[in-house]
């Protein structure tokens, strides 16, 4: 067996089932290995390495198993960097195999040569190059284990052509390494429970997608029995049942005022499986650095995350699932702390009618009624993401795939990966008109792979997030944020996908029903007014407020 065959057989044994990529001459031996692996490890032929890496990142987030991407050297690898960065910030497992020049050419700036350790050393969890055919399976096994362990993340493995094509002295791997998750220290767990029991304003903050079903259920039971509000980290709404009386919203970009208040006013915060990034902390303003006023109990499987920014009152290097299963409820008299938090969240879902041909508030209300209990929702980045991220309540069986990195173009590739993983489930992608055009060509991948998501293009003719910032900071001085768009419905039909333009709110329900029934996947091009850029403030109002503030100043 040559190296490519050993690599593919090892990935199958480790648990990989799909590999996303764009074919390249630098990893022909791996493609040859996949020739005999059909049905065990299938190559999903993408249209851009950026789309492929997004698909692999979304696969890792959805399934908990490393998403696998194969990309060619140089331009292929740099195209794929966006998905690697997204997987890192999302803390999801991913393996990216990159073709490399032959070992005897290295260091000469050969055609498309890059030093992948240097390029991805600060972006990936680990970047490595296999220089010796005898170490192929050793390094692949370590890469898989590294991607999954501690704080999950992406691993980049460079594969020189001659190493991959040469006869391999290695036997394929027979399976993954079994690693027991770290258990909580009993004394530390008892101390944490005492702190929570004594708290008058406790708060639970959770993140991460790698929760087990019983861990989630145990945490929800503990929160409800203890009368403690729960908030989730940026774009991890699906990690806790939004219909629970304890769920209080998302700590992320555009953080609602009531969530900011909960974070600021809490006396004890139980932080499970989350890193304290900029978005969760309101730009590091809601908790003082490095000594927060709030007493933080930080639980994480990676010791590197504990104390990285904030000094916790107590750190537990332990499995979040294990801690959740070990918590014993202790209900105290905390007044209206939890009930007010829940009421504020419920009020945040009630948004006014929008001044737009298609009213997104009405669209979201309809989707809340008709989407199945196991629906998967995806989105990229832009002001349109407010709708699936802030104006929708996710049930326990529903999933949200959205990038913490704020990467545009993630939504469609993520929806394709989700539909490949779960063809029986309804998959809905929200995309802005700018966001969609980052990876719209992956509709061809969707058709070829038989993956048929429904894409809702929130088409307002502007880069909405940047225009909003523009109007707040430089009112009435528009520059670089207007867009001339194609006919998205016609473009979808050119790819063999059902396409419709929806010009009025009243037309959406029937159009959405046709999209679900199409059998080809669908793109619904929603006519949304540029002025209706956010649920509670129009662009005109932003401009007027900024101008008034400037005049007053």
Plain-language structure description:
The chain is of the alpha/beta class and 553 residues long. The protein is 38% helix and 16% strand. It has 21 helices and 18 strands. The protein has helices at residues 3-14, 28-35, 49-63, 75-90, 116-120, 136-148, 161-165, 186-198, 213-226, 257-265, 320-326, 337-348, 360-370, 386-390, 411-421, 433-439, 443-449, 464-473, 488-494, 508-517, 539-552; strands spanning 18-21, 42-45, 67-71, 94-100, 126-129, 154-160, 202-206, 230-233, 247-251, 268-272, 295-300, 314-317, 376-379, 399-401, 427-432, 454-459, 498-502, 522-527. The strands form three sheets. The protein has a six-stranded parallel β-sheet with strand order 2-1-3-4-6-5, with helices on both faces. Strands 9-8-7-10-11-12 form a six-stranded parallel β-sheet, with helices on both faces. Strand 3 (67-71), helix 4 and strand 4 form a beta-alpha-beta unit. 54% of the residues are buried.
Summed up:
By secondary structure, the protein is α/β, with parallel strands linked by helices. It is built from 21 helices and 18 strands. The chain is globular.
Number of strands: 18
Low-confidence sequence ranges: none
Write down the overall geometry.
Answer: globular
Terminal CA distance reads 74 Å
How big is the Rg? 24 Å
Helix-and-strand structural type: alpha/beta
Helical amount among residues, as a percent range?
Answer: 25-40%
Strand order of the largest sheet: 2-1-3-4-6-5
Beta percentage is 15-25%
């Amino acid at each position: 067996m040559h190296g490519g065959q050993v690599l593919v057989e090892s990935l199958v044994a480790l648990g990989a089932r799909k590999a996303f990529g764009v074919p390249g001459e630098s990893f022909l031996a791996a493609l040859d290995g996949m020739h005999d692996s059909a049905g065990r490890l299938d190559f999903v032929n993408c249209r851009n390495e950026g789309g492929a890496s997004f698909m692999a990142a979304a696969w890792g987030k959805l399934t908990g198993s490393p998403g696998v991407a194969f990309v060619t050297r140089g331009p292929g690898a740099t195209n794929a960097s966006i998905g690697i960065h997204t997987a890192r910030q999302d803390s999801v497992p991913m393996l990216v195999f990159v073709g490399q020049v032959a070992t005897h050419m290295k260091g000469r700036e050969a055609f498309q040569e890059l030093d992948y350790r240097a390029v991805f050393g600060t972006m990936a969890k680990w970047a490595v190059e296999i220089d010796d055919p005898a170490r192929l399976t050793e390094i692949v096994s370590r890469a898989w284990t590294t991607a999954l362990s501690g704080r999950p993340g992406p691993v980049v493995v460079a594969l020189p052509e001659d190493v991959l094509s040469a006869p391999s002295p290695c036997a394929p791997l027979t399976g993954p390494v079994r690693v027991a998750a770290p258990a909580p220290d009993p004394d530390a767990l008892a101390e944490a429970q005492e702190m929570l029991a004594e708290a008058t304003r406790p708060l639970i903050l959770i993140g991460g997608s790698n929760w087990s079903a019983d861990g989630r259920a145990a945490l929800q039971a503990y929160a409800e029995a203890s009368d403690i509000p729960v908030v989730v980290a940026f774009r991890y709404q699906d990690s806790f049942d939004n219909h629970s009386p304890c769920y209080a919203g998302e700590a992320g970009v555009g953080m609602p005022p009531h969530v900011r208040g909960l974070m600021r006013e809490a006396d004890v915060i139980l932080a499970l499986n989350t890193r304290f990034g900029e978005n969760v902390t309101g730009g590091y303003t809601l908790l003082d650095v490095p000594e927060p006023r709030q007493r933080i109990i930080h639980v994480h499987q990676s010791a590197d995350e504990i104390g990285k920014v904030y000094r916790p009152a107590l750190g537990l290097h332990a499995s979040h699932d294990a801690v959740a299963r070990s918590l014993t409820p202790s209900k105290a008299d905390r007044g209206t702390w939890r009930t007010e938090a829940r009421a504020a969240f419920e009020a945040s879902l009630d948004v006014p009618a929008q001044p737009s041909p298609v009213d997104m508030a009405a669209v979201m209300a309809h989707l809340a009624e008709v989407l199945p209990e196991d629906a998967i929702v995806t989105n990229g980045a832009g002001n349109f993401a407010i709708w699936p991220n802030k104006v929708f309540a996710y049930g326990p069986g529903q999933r949200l795939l959205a990038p913490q990195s704020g990467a545009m173009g993630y939504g469609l590739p993520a929806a394709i990966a989700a539909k490949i993983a779960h063809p029986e489930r309804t998959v809905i992608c929200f995309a802005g008109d700018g966001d969609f055009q980052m990876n719209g060509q992956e509709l061809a991948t969707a058709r070829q792979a038989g993956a048929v998501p429904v894409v809702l293009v929130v088409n307002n003719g502007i880069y909405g997030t940047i225009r909003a910032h523009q109007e707040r900071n430089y009112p009435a001085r528009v520059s670089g944020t207007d867009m001339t768009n194609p006919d998205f419905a016609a473009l979808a039909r050119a790819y063999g996908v059902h396409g419709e333009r929806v010009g009025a709110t009243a037309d959406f329900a029937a159009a959405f029903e046709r999209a679900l029934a199409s059998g080809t996947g669908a793109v619904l091009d929603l006519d949304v007014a540029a002025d209706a850029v956010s649920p509670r403030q129009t662009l005109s109002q932003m401009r007027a407020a900024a101008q008034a503030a400037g005049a007053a100043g």
